[in-house]
# Entry
Amino acid sequence: MPPSPSSLPNELSPPVLPAFVRVFIAIPVDDSLSAQLERLQASLAARVPAKSVRWTRPEQIHLTLKFLGKVRAAAIPEVTAALRSVCADALALRLKAEGFGCFPNAVRPRVLWVGVTGEIAALARLQERVAAVTEALGEHEKREDFTAHLTMGRVLSRRPREVREVGEALAGVAFSQVGDWRAEAVELQESVLRPGGSVYTTLARVPLGAAG
# Structure
């Protein structure tokens, strides 16, 4: 007698797909710049109190163009098609990682970042178009001021004294260009929240016109 469906091994059961996924749109950095940023993280980590900052994994450092938040899983092809329409006639960009700062400020740092310079006007136009075509596809519909940056780490503590200690430790940090890279594609990334930090998975990679 064949086994009943309820007795089949779990691995034969179809996967349960989520109805919604948490996503953002970003430009990745290349391996060379990622390695340079990792060295910079080590230098910054030596300045601040131990375990006070959760550092972004170097392979996950990226330039966010638009955070969409929760999107219907069934709408991912629509988001990807919207990105293709924008990227088809966009040029590849030469960008630089340069300068250091904190959000919201150095007195109450929450996010530690490296700035982005280079072909910034073209980058801003690309970001504006990406935001426009995806505006109604995610839960975050409000347009926000775009500040090009690479998130290096996030301050873990919420205690004012400990946050202030991090700000004081970083007050003397100053450096010029870390490195540069050629931005050739835009990626749609899923972000899954984990206790140890977010885990990113690339759902789609769309080449910029001149690169593709």
In short: The beta strands are 20-28, 53-55, 62-72, 93-103, 111-118, 149-155, 177-183, 185-192, 199-207. The first helix runs from residue 31 to 45. The first strand starts at residue 20 and ends at 28. The domain at 20-97+121-148+179-207 is CATH 3.90.1140.10 (Cyclic Phosphodiesterase; Chain: A,).
